[in-house]
C-alpha cells in the first residue's frame, strides 16, 4: 500500500507475478540452449545433474534475489545501497547492470534470427532444400551485414515498446497473455513429437541416463546453465522482486517459477528429441540444433509446415518475455539511480543495447576477423556474461543473504510474522552460506578455463 502511494510500481496479482517471473526465466535458454547442450553432453545424465543444481543452488539463489528485491524495493544496484549503505556490496549491482547490457545485446541477435525463421517457415523457404543447403542458408543469413540487423532491431523495438508502457500495464499484462500461449504451443508440439513413429528412441535419450557420456565439463555447464535459465546472478529477480506485493509468499513464488522453468525445458526436449531421432538425425550438433537440424526435421514431418511456424513463434515469444526482464534491470537502474524519466530511460537503454547488439551481429560476418582470446565479439559477450558475470553475481548474492543479511531478517521477510519451518531455514541458510558459493566458485574457475588447465595438468596431456 505505502509503496503504491509513493508511486512505485507493483505487480497487480499473484498470477501476474508468476507470469512475469516465469516469462523471464523461460527463454532462449530453455528452448534453444537446453536441448542442444543436453544433446552435446549425452542426454539424461546431463538432465539429472542439471536438476540437482536447480534444486540445490538455483532455487535458494532465486529466493535470495526475491528477498533482496522486495525488502529494498529498489533496482539491482540501489537494493544493496539501501540494505547495506556505505559497503562494497553494491558492486554486485553494478555487475548485474553490466551483465544485463551484454546479455541483451546478443540475446536480441538470436531472437532476431528466430523472427526471420518465422518468415522462412511461412514462406516454406526450405522446401526442396537438402540438409547441406539448409545449413548454408543459416550460415549466410547470420553472416549477412544487413538482414539480421533488421530483425534484431524489430525485436528490440518490440521489447522496448512493452517496457516503456510500465511494469503493470506493459510487462505484467503482456506476460499474462504470452505465457499461456507459449504453454499451449509447446504442448501441441509435444503431442506431435511423441506420436511420431520412432519417437521412443528420443524419449529414451532424454530420460535414460548414461553417465559415461557425462564429462566434467558437462557437469560444470549444467551449473552455468542453471543460472542462465533461471535468470539468476544479475538482479533480474531483484528488480522483479521489488515489484512484489508484501503479502505474496516468496518461497512459493520461487518454487513455482523454478518448477515452471524446468518443466518447459523438459517439454522443449520432448518436442525436439523424439522428432530428431524419428528422422535419424544426430542430436549432438550444438548451436545449430534449432536453426539447422529442426528445419530438416520439419521438412520430413507430416504437418511440418504448421509445426515449424508454431515452433519459431514459440521461440520468439519465449525470447521476448525474457528480454523485457533484462531491459527492465537497466531501465529501473536508470530511473532510480540516475533519475532519468522512465520513458527516456527505456529509449536510451534500448538504443544503447541495440547498438552493441549490432556490433555483435556483424561479428558473425563483416567483423569476423576481429577476435579477442580467439572469440569473436558475439561469443565474447556470451562468454563474459554467462560464464563470468552471472556466476560471480550469483555467488555474491548468496553470500550477501547468508552472511550480511542474515537469518533473522530472512525469517522476517519470508515468514510474514508467522512461523517458518525450522528445517527449511536451516537448509536454506546452509545452501546460501556454503554450498552455492563454493559450487559457483568452481564454475567461475571453469569459466576462466582454469579448471581445464588443472585437469589437463593432472591427466598429463598438456
Ligand atoms: N533465463 C533466460 C533464458 O533462459 C535468459 C536470461 C538470463 C534472462 C539472465 C534474464 C537474465 O533464456
What are the key terms here?
globular; Hydantoin permease; 462 residues; single chain; 20 helices; binds phenylalanine; mainly alpha
Mean pLDDT: 88
Distance between the termini: 62 Å
| Tally of separate domains | 1
Instruction: Note the overall shape.
Output: globular
Approximately how much helix is present in the residues? over 70%
CATH first level: Mainly Alpha
Which ions, cofactors or small ligands are bound in this entry?
Answer: phenylalanine
Structural class: mainly alpha
Computed over alpha carbons, the radius of gyration is 21 Å
H/E series: HHHHHHHHHHHHHHHHHHHH
Low-confidence stretches: 1-5
CATH superfamily: Hydantoin permease
CATH topology: Hydantoin permease
Number of helices: 20
Question: Strand percentage, roughly?
Answer: under 5%
CATH architecture: Orthogonal Bundle
Q: What is the assembly state of the chains in this entry?
A: single chain
Amino acid at each position: 500500500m505505502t509503496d503504491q502511494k509513493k508511486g512505485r510500481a507493483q505487480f497487480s496479482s499473484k498470477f501476474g507475478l508468476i507470469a512475469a517471473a516465469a516469462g523471464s526465466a523461460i527463454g532462449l535458454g530453455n528452448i534453444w540452449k537446453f536441448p542442444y547442450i543436453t544433446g552435446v553432453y549425452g542426454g539424461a545424465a546431463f538432465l539429472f545433474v542439471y536438476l540437482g543444481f536447480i534444486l540445490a543452488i538455483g532455487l535458494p539463489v532465486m529466493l535470495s534475489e526475491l528477498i533482496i528485491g522486495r525488502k529494498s524495493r529498489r533496482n539491482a544496484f540501489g537494493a544493496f545501497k539501501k540494505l547495506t549503505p556505505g559497503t562494497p556490496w553494491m558492486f554486485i549491482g553494478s555487475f548485474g547492470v553490466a551483465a544485463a547490457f551484454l546479455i541483451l545485446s546478443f540475446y536480441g541477435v538470436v531472437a532476431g534470427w528466430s523472427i526471420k525463421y518465422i518468415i522462412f517457415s511461412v514462406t516454406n523457404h526450405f522446401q526442396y532444400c537438402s540438409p547441406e543447403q539448409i545449413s548454408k542458408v543459416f550460415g549466410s543469413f547470420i553472416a549477412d551485414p544487413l538482414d539480421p540487423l533488421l530483425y534484431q532491431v524489430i525485436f528490440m523495438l518490440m521489447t522496448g515498446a512493452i517496457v516503456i508502457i510500465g511494469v503493470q500495464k506493459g510487462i505484467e499484462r503482456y506476460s499474462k497473455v504470452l505465457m499461456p500461449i507459449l504453454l499451449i504451443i509447446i504442448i501441441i508440439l509435444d503431442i506431435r513429437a511423441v506420436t511420431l513413429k520412432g519417437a521412443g528412441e528420443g524419449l529414451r535419450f532424454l530420460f535414460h541416463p548414461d553417465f559415461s557420456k557425462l564429462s566434467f565439463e558437462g557437469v560444470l555447464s549444467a551449473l552455468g546453465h542453471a543460472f542462465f535459465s533461471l535468470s539468476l546472478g544479475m538482479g533480474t529477480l531483484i528488480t522483479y522482486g521489488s515489484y512484489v506485493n508484501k503479502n505474496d509468499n516468496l518461497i512459493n513464488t520461487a518454487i513455482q517459477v523454478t518448477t515452471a522453468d524446468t518443466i518447459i525445458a523438459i517439454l522443449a526436449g520432448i518436442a525436439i528429441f523424439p522428432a530428431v531421432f524419428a528422422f535419424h538425425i544426430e542430436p549432438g550438433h550444438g548451436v545449430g540444433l534449432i536453426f539447422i537440424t529442426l528445419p530438416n526435421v520439419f521438412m520430413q514431418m507430416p504437418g511440418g509446415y504448421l509445426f515449424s511456424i508454431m515452433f519459431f513463434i514459440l521461440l520468439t515469444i519465449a525470447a521476448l518475455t525474457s528480454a523485457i526482464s533484462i531491459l527492465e534491470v537497466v531501465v529501473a537502474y536508470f530511473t532510480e539511480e540516475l533519475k532519468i524519466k522512465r520513458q527516456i530511460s527505456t529509449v536510451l537503454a534500448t538504443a544503447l543495447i541495440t547498438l552493441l547488439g549490432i556490433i555483435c551481429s556483424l561479428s558473425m560476418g563483416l567483423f569476423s576477423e576481429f577476435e579477442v582470446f580467439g572469440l569473436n565479439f558475439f561469443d565474447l559477450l556470451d562468454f563474459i556474461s554467462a560464464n563470468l558475470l552471472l556466476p560471480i553475481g550469483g555467488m555474491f548474492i548468496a553470500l550477501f543473504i547468508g552472511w550480511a543479511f542474515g537469518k533473522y531478517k530472512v525469517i522476517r521477510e519470508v515468514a510474514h510474522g508467522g512461523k517458518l519451518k525450522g528445517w527449511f531455514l536451516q537448509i536454506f541458510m546452509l545452501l546460501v552460506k556454503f554450498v552455492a558459493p563454493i559450487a559457483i566458485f568452481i564454475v567461475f574457475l571453469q569459466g576462466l578455463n582454469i579448471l581445464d588447465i588443472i585437469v589437463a595438468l593432472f591427466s598429463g596431456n598438456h
